[in-house]
Amino acid sequence: MERKTTNLMSIGSLSKAASVKIPTIRYYEQQELIIATCRSEGNQRLYSEKELQRLRFIKHARDLGFSLNDVRELILLEQQPSGSCESAHLIAARHLQSVCVRLAQLERLKHELERMVSLTESAENKRCSVIKALADHSQCEGEHCA
Amino acid sequence: MERKTTNLMSIGSLSKAASVKIPTIRYYEQQELIIATCRSEGNQRLYSEKELQRLRFIKHARDLGFSLNDVRELILLEQQPSGSCESAHLIAARHLQSVCVRLAQLERLKHELERMVSLTESAENKRCSVIKALADHSQCEGEHCA
DNA sequence: CTAATACCTCTAGTAACTAGAGGTTCAAGT
DNA sequence: ACTTGAACCTCTAGTTACTAGAGGTATTAG
To answer: Domain HTH merR-type, which positions (chains A, B) (predicted)?
Structure first.
């Protein structure tokens, strides 16, 4: 009744529509994240609009840096009627947290690298200061140096 | 003459001194980044101060996010007498560049995740907004959405 | 001399794909 | 109906930088 035209598409079309490479789609299938609606007589995968939506969901989550395990969980939550919101929120919040941590780390690394590179640029000494900076970590300002 | 006491250490001591795990050291050996000075009668690895310095160099570079391939190159450069500075500078600058790119990406992701999470917190509707945000990327503000 | 600890090699597993070999199916044109 | 070329199929192995485990040997402290 509310079923649209049963327009099934090949893996190639799906790939283009979701901007996800074909081998990746097959990999996701292996990981049980997405399964083709059915196969053609000749065993080729056929997908409906529903799978396209799911693949876009996965793509978006991956672009946001969620792991495939997170994605797996989110898909399960999506399928449940309700009560799943808190869990989804938790996953997102946890991920946000790790993004923040990573961000702070990268900031620090950026500073040290900048220092290293600028030292090199003004180098008048023979010994390379990039290499010196790496070898002699007493100069290092970063926290990663124990 | 300028040779210090020939105090060789086991892989365990080296590991502690450089804060690098034992299997990782063996892995680096396999990758030809560091080789033990010699072996004991019973075939156990023995290292000198020189290897400790190199391992610290590797560790520091890895902490700064250089790939093992970069490290390999930097080590080669380190061993050459001179003229290697530009190459080392190039490697560092290239890496800094990629750190900056990654940083900008992460900033964007952070914003989108924050938006997602805050939406969820104030949700009064039944359907989870985290999941909705992932499914419906027309709401998405990030550049990663094509 | 013995027991605990540290070491050895080798293989396989992790995440998230990517690449390639070798073969089949589909769609379009003649 | 036939042919050609693109798109598809499965399966295996490679990528990065390690980590974990099995099964066995060396060293060292008491």
So the answer is: 8-77
